[in-house]
């Protein structure tokens, strides 16, 4: 075991897969010589060589398309798109090619690629560096979408994603790379040191895709979250004094619906939290699934706490970001009924 | 035709000085110093926590924006990427509005909602500030189509960097622009580094002025540290575009002194390399030498320096005293308001 932050845990996962599988390779903007803007690929080129971890030009469409070709011919590429906001030029390739190759070739071809990308707000990035685009991937049948919330899961989920034979979009909550963030910007920055989920085994292990984690067991209300919002929700629950059950989805496709349903049937109440804007966000799908399966167990309407339905603004970081105050309001509202 | 137009331009100070008026020298000096002092202050405000998020400084590249704008005419459009503060100042935007946008205040050019990378000014013909690398190249091509459609004699100056030059949409744009003979000048600000990756590490060919060759678009490599070389090339390119001959590519050889953004420690290049450029190619030192050769008195230069300092301090003050936008502004400008 070693204490790692999320960057170190991800770097360690990549290091292990490069060492164990000669078909795995990493490329993307600034990932080679420079080691990545967030340092996730630091020293991997030095250690594994130029053909295993290398720089690509600023060509997101080309990067992902080339990775699909590599994957279809037996390689296992892991590409980094520097910010999730930059994936859109490659969206056609992900949707029409990566996600659909297996189906339209009757199972003869597929593209086992992993697209790693930092996402999310809390860093004053404005509208082109703060978005949470998970719903546009979740909607695409054929893609898997994974979002870790701590170093232990980050490593185990990334290895599982790379080893998975389906294309995986692996979204990394950049606000919590260096430490958990509880949504209270006025408080001192925390590091991962001492956090129980920062204790990471040094060798190979996986966290299965499609298995949620119960971060905090409880009986009164179920809270669903992923990424940064797991920590914000936990802090809000503690402040609220409620005995809420917090579920960290860890991957939204595949979705661990059984864990969600069991919890909501137990509590009868549910609040969904995500950073992405509300309308047609992933919370809408969760809400629909829950009411289909738990309608007669629900004691209150399902609540959603999300980013507002506006572009991510530069000036209103903490008004936009769904912080603890909004989550507590939704929890109380769920309890009133 | 493309071949004939390929050449390297570089002013030889001695030869060119006779063509340069003292007024022009003073004007360009003032504009370049304004950009540098503004950016230095922006860097300081960032360090003090008054500017959040991303902030890409233009220091080192001043001669490009100033020299290019010297060749622009009223009604021409400008569009660029995220390293945009210098362009906005050269386009004549109010430094107070630019600084207040950086600090996210209501007095900012986008009411604080855009931030460093996303600023606009309709009066200056400044179509943004764009945060997605290369996306503005196609938009600039569309601006040029609008000029062509209206036959208004205007030109779209479309800027991008050496990194963006590898985006696929750049070449889709080149093809359309030449096919339809659109009045667009593509200005590639080659500052040698795309974030942390040098041009050679990410580009099969490094002569970016040739990137339009297969479409028949003429191109020139220009000393982007020499404001007069930039202006000369800009005039040639604008004349080409304005006269209906179609697009033109200018590759500006320049250099950014600071990191890619404020969070970049710039470990991918040596301090010696940066110091060498500062000592031998600095665009402001270059024009200062020309001013001295033209016999401009130190006092006159000093006066400009002081005026610029006052303008920048006023911008800094405005950026801190302009109120934060009202939370109701969060929901304005999302859709057309009935």
UniProtKB/TrEMBL annotation, chain A:
SMART domains: Transket_pyr. GO terms for molecular function: branched-chain 2-oxo acid dehydrogenase activity. Gene3D superfamilies: 3.40.50.920, 3.40.50.970. It comes from Asticcacaulis taihuensis. Its cofactor is thiamine diphosphate. InterPro entries: THDP-binding (IPR029061), Transketo_C/PFOR_II (IPR009014), Transketolase-like_Pyr-bd (IPR005475), Transketolase_C (IPR033248). GO terms for biological process: branched-chain amino acid catabolic process; response to nutrient. The keyword Oxidoreductase applies. This is 3-methyl-2-oxobutanoate dehydrogenase (2-methylpropanoyl-transferring). Residues 4-179 form the Transketolase-like pyrimidine-binding domain. It is an enzyme of class 1 (oxidoreductase). Keywords: Oxidoreductase. Its EC number is 1.2.4.4.
From TrEMBL, chain B:
Its cofactor is thiamine diphosphate. It catalyses: N(6)-[(R)-lipoyl]-L-lysyl-[protein] + pyruvate + H(+) = N(6)-[(R)-S(8)-acetyldihydrolipoyl]-L-lysyl-[protein] + CO2. InterPro entries: DH_E1, PDH_E1_Alpha_Subunit, Pyrv_DH_E1_asu_subgrp-y, THDP-binding. Keywords: Oxidoreductase, Pyruvate, Thiamine pyrophosphate. It holds the Pfam family E1_dh. Residues 31-327 form the Dehydrogenase E1 component domain. Its EC number is 1.2.4.1. The keyword Nucleus does not apply. One of its GO terms (biological process) is pyruvate decarboxylation to acetyl-CoA. Heterodimer of an alpha and a beta chain. The pyruvate dehydrogenase complex catalyzes the overall conversion of pyruvate to acetyl-CoA and CO(2). It contains multiple copies of three enzymatic components: pyruvate dehydrogenase (E1), dihydrolipoamide acetyltransferase (E2) and lipoamide dehydrogenase (E3). PANTHER family: PYRUVATE DEHYDROGENASE E1 COMPONENT SUBUNIT ALPHA (PTHR11516:SF60), PYRUVATE DEHYDROGENASE E1 COMPONENT, ALPHA SUBUNIT BACTERIAL AND ORGANELLAR (PTHR11516). This is Pyruvate dehydrogenase E1 component subunit alpha. The gene is pdhA.
